[in-house]
Design a protein that fits this description.
With about 110 residues, the protein is α+β, with helices and mostly antiparallel strands. About 25% of the residues lie in helices and about 45% in strands. The protein has a six-stranded antiparallel β-barrel.
Length: about 110
């Protein structure tokens, strides 16, 4: 992991009638998504492998909380989706609709 971006976006909930669980995400768009996409492409060209669903591993930081996860391409907007797990939301007192500042290293 050698690249990084800072993003401020709204925390939102994804739900599905087929899946009773709900997931919280931050959508990464614009220049930040372009930078992640470029790094993912370079890694794919250098290593010859693509990770599942086109994901890329990241170290994410919100407030004082840091965790390891992956961002996933979003078909809807061409950006990436960052899942924000319950432990992070609890530690940082976050709820859906909150504006979240995220630092990503990838």
């Amino acid at each position: 992991m050698s690249e990084s971006v800072d993003v401020t976006a709204t925390l939102w909930i994804w739900t599905s009638p087929e899946a009773p669980a709900s997931w919280h995400f931050v959508t990464i768009e614009g220049e930040a998504a372009d930078a992640i996409r470029a790094t993912a492409l370079m890694r794919r060209l250098e290593g010859g492998q693509r990770r599942g669903w086109g994901s890329i591993r990241v170290s994410a930081t919100i407030g004082d909380t840091n965790w390891q996860t992956s961002v996933f391409p979003s078909r809807e907007n061409g950006g990436y989706l960052l899942p924000v797990k319950a432990a992070v939301r609890k530690a940082e007192s976050l709820a859906a609709g909150d504006e979240v500042s995220v630092h990503l290293r990838y």
